[in-house]
Design brief:
With 847 residues, this protein is α/β, with parallel strands linked by helices. It is built from 30 helices and 22 strands. The site of adenosine-5'-diphosphate (ADP) has 18 residues, from helix 17.
Length: 847
């Protein structure tokens, strides 16, 4: 028999063992057509036969099982390969069942299977692993099989421990635990890190430099020798009908144990050339009479840990997926599957691990990402409706009272502010707890709106709390609230100054005592503070409204703790980082949103410019002239990721240089992240009191402090910051009515970076910048902190608005039909939802 005939026979034989399901070659036997034609020509097979055989192979997938057997026979006849006629007919084939997760099997297996540096081919040489093919047998066949087997643990669900997997003993299970894998389900959802696409099957004559390819070839020789530099070189020469190629491994002579002359291999790797002849260094290979896992397909590459090899894990994954993926029940209803082009769950899980094609992989990814977004949205919608269903105390005020409060402000509210306070007034009167996100760009005037809302609650005798992320900001709010609530204009004051209190880390023990008593007995109506507000044993008599400022700085748990202090208090969350729509629908999807997209009148837009490092002197002279006119300036140095040390050093050294060499006649302050909170606070206070003219700082000044006298924001190494963050820095100036400036100095003249920063000079619109930023950096960086509970989105990209809207649509539809997911068709969905939102970190905490 010729080389290519023998190869065909081997593949056909494997195909017969798989019951003619077109699985012997990944992607189907049709894939062989091209490479076979090439080989046939170089082997001198009669030209008249070539198109006929190629056409039989090409149409093989369209045939039924009976016809496939016939088709292979036909090829056998045409090429005169006798052995093919002995291939069993489909009905006589016993589809190779069955490896089952039964104990006896595992033990005997692991006993022989001492862990090896490289996965053994012993098991596969004469292929007991053919049983893996169960992945392709029908589900019902499998379940029958299970119930027939008395040893199989029929009830072992997807929670079963890893040791039920063939080839996984206690030791291997321990290694897998290190990858976070504890149950079968964890395995199914442990996705490849990347894929090597070896699905291009070629003949040796077709190989081109640098291509990632697969070939099917026969081993001609194998040997190991010592190189001059004392390296062990293992070399195998393999050939197909079109030529031969060398395979080379360095220091890996164990291949000698697996490879034999005459063996047919499927080989994958990257083609190289040495002295004009093709060669593949460190290829992967496996016998062709075995299901191909590591070659000749799109091969998954998994994250690894010590003592686990890629081949072993891939094989183990395959075993797991083969048996268990078909036990996954789809929680998406047929209705949703019907209305979308999503594959079913079993298919998606199989294809994400062992894709049959790039399209199948893409569609599996889409399905799994959809699942995450869909469940996320369902939880968020459910949470929102649960909140809306709760009872909250009603707070109403007369129009007269309301107008008086507004009229006594020293300025006119913007239309956006009026809309926002009307939203809040409605929420407070609704009888359900408010759960609102107030979004407004830096300087849009959110504080006064929060104050008005709290005034409504307080005027009817209840208490309110306002929580800020830093002491200095809390103090700034405290001053604003004193103005707003205790203003001396006759009869309009709502509170006495002693009824408004500030609680921060700095508060003295005796003040704490007093505050504590005042809160319990109800005298203190408005408490403003930092984390101390929730950390201290603060007990309120009747807390009815909670405002959280700059909310992305607060953790989920902290907000939840604050809520617990009252009985379903009204909650207002304020953020100056504009939240793009995709995040509004997801991470903040349980909140109602008020948007303040208008700046108070009379503000001059901040003038933003990019200066190159060489032009730094110009920036300094701008600062000079501004400080000479009595204004102040910020100079920001970047946060260097490698550690705060480096960051602080930059700021520290620069402060000295600036003070001594550039601005000797001015006072230059310094603030950085390694200072204690109270140190930072006192520096900020000193700056606010104009004890410094210039403040050198790291990114710690980002959060909403109001220093109207500052008119210059100079940002060094601006390219290191995200646009949203730069916008926050810029918001530190321009709070007064005079012209302010923001100067960005990138580290280099890099054109790309420069282009990114250009956006800053073109717009002052925080929303536009936030959208850009989210696109450029992704949601994790965008939010500054990882939002708890969302770290486990493995597939979904939170900036993929199309996916998010699709998920949203179906979540809403599902929720409207069956809010509690009580119907039979939603039983599995309900479980999946509870799984996605475990009680402990449920959406209750999400605000
Ligand atoms: P932010 O939304 O960034 O928290 P603030 O609430 O701190 O903004 O407001 C910024 C400044 O604008 C404050 O000094 C505040 O008194 C002032 N302000 C708020 N609303 C108006 C308005 N309608 N007209 C003029 N100034 C306003
Ligand atoms: Mg603010």
């Amino acid at each position: 028999m010729s080389l290519s005939s023998d190869k065909l026979y081997k593949i056909f034989k494997l195909e017969s063992e798989f019951g003619y399901e077109n699985k012997a070659v990944v992607g189907g036997l049709q894939k062989l057509a091209d490479s076979w034609v090439n080989e046939a020509r170089s082997e001198g097979i009669a030209e008249s036969l070539v198109p006929a055989i190629s056409s039989i192979l090409t149409h093989y997938p369209n045939l039924n099982i009976e016809e496939r057997w016939g088709a292979l026979q036909e090829i056998g006849d045409l090429l005169d390969i006798r052995a093919i006629s002995s291939l069993p007919k489909p009905d006589q084939t016993k589809p190779v069942e069955q490896y089952l997760p039964n104990k006896g099997n595992i033990q005997s297996k692991t006993a022989q299977n001492k862990p090896r540096p490289n996965e053994s081919f012993e098991t596969s040489r004469k292929s007991p692993e053919i049983a893996e093919q169960v992945i392709h047998t029908k589900v019902n066949k499998r379940t029958q099989e299970i119930s027939r087997n008395p040893i199989a643990d029929v009830n072992a669900g997807l929670n079963a421990p890893l040791t039920v997997i063939r080839g996984v003993g206690i030791k291997q299970a321990e290694h897998l635990h290190k990858l976070g894998l504890h149950s079968i389900e964890d395995m199914l959802y442990f996705f490849p890190r990347r894929y090597d696409d070896y699905s291009q099957l070629r003949t040796i004559s077709q190989l081109q430099y640098g291509q990632e390819v697969s070939i099917v070839a026969c081993v001609q020789s194998i040997n190991t020798f010592q190189s001059k530099r004392n390296r062990k070189i293992t070399e195998a020469v393999v050939s197909d009908a079109t030529g031969s190629i060398r395979l080379i491994w360095f220091n890996a002579d164990f291949h000698m144990r697996y490879l034999r002359k005459g063996m047919y291999l499927s080989i994958s790797g990257k083609t190289d050339f040495y002295l004009g002849r093709p060669i593949i260094y460190h290829p992967d290979y496996e016998p062709i009479d075995q299901q191909q896992l590591h070659t000749n397909r799109i091969v998954p590459v998994y994250p690894l840990t010590a003592l686990i090899t890629q081949r072993w894990l891939r094989r183990t994954m395959y075993n797991t997926i083969s048996f268990w993926s078909s036990r996954l029940e789809d929680f998406l209803t047929n209705e949703i599957l019907g209305k979308t082009d999503l594959p079913d769950l079993q298919t998606a899980i199989r294809q994400i691990h062992f894709p049959e094609s790039q399209e199948a992989l893409k569609s599996a990814r889409h399905r799994l990402a959809f699942d995450e977004i869909f469940l996320l949205q369902l939880g968020v919608i459910r949470q929102k409706s649960q909140w809306h269903a709760l009872e909250g105390t009603r707070y109403t005020v007369s129009d007269n009272w309301f107008d008086t409060q507004i009229n006594k402000l020293p300025y006119e509210l913007t239309n956006a502010q009026i809309h926002a306070i009307n939203d809040i007034r409605k929420d407070l009167a609704s009888g359900h707890p408010m759960n609102r996100l107030l979004q407004g760009d830096v300087g849009s005037g959110k504080t006064v709106i929060a104050g008005l809302g709290m005034a409504i609650v307080i005027q009817s005798g209840a208490q309110a709390a306002l929580m800020a992320p830093t002491g200095i900001l809390a103090e700034q709010h405290y001053q604003s609230m004193l103005n707003q609530f205790c203003n001396a204009v006759e009869d309009t004051a709502i509170l006495e100054p002693s009824q408004v209190r500030l609680l921060t880390g700095d508060t003295s023990t005796s003040d704490r005592q007093e505050i504590s008593e005042g809160l319990i007995n109800g005298w203190i109506k408005l408490l403003i503070g930092t984390h101390a507000l929730i950390e201290d044993p603060v007990i309120f008599q009747n807390l009815q409204m909670v405002v959280v400022d700059e909310q992305h700085r607060f953790g989920v748990k902290q907000r939840a703790a604050l809520r617990m202090k009252g009985n379903n208090p009204h909650l207002l969350v304020m953020t100056a980082t504009p939240i793009p729509r995709s995040l509004q629908l997801t991470i903040f999807g349980d909140l109602d949103v008020s948007l303040m997209d208008e700046m108070p009148a009379g503000r001059r837009p901040i003038e933003t410019q990019i200066f190159f490092p060489m032009e730094r002197e110009r920036a300094y002279s701008l600062i000079h002239s501004q400080v000479d006119s009595g204004f102040q300036a910020f100079i920001i140095y970047p946060l260097v990721e490698q550690g705060e040390n480096e960051e602080t050093k930059a700021a520290v050294e620069e402060q000295q240089r600036l003070q001594q060499e550039i601005f000797p006649e001015f006072k230059v302050g310094l603030m950085h992240g390694r200072m204690r909170a109270d140190e930072k606070d006192s520096i900020m206070k000193a700056f606010k009191n104009q004890e410094y003219d210039i403040l050198v700082s790291t990114s710690v000044v980002e959060v909403g402090i109001d220093i109207p006298n500052a008119t210059v924001m100079l940002i060094e190494a601006a390219n290191r910051f995200g646009l949203a963050q730069l916008h926050q820095f810029r918001g530190r100036v321009g709070r007064g009515t005079v012209q302010s400036f923001c100067i960005l100095i990138p580290e280099t003249e890099d054109a790309m970076e420069n282009e990114r920063l250009q956006v800053m000079t073109k717009t002052n619109d925080g929303f536009e910048l936030a959208e850009q930023d989210l696109l450029q950096r992704g949601p994790g960086d965008f939010l500054g902190t990882r939002q708890a509970g969302f770290a486990d989105l493995k597939m979904a990209n939170l900036s993929n608005i199309r996916l998010i809207e699709q998920g949203r649509h179906f979540a809403q539809e599902t929720f409207e039909k069956d809010p509690d997911l009580e119907s039979e068709q939603h039983k599995l969905l309900r479980q999946a939802l509870d799984h996605f939102w475990p009680a402990t970190e449920g959406v209750g905490d999400m605000s």
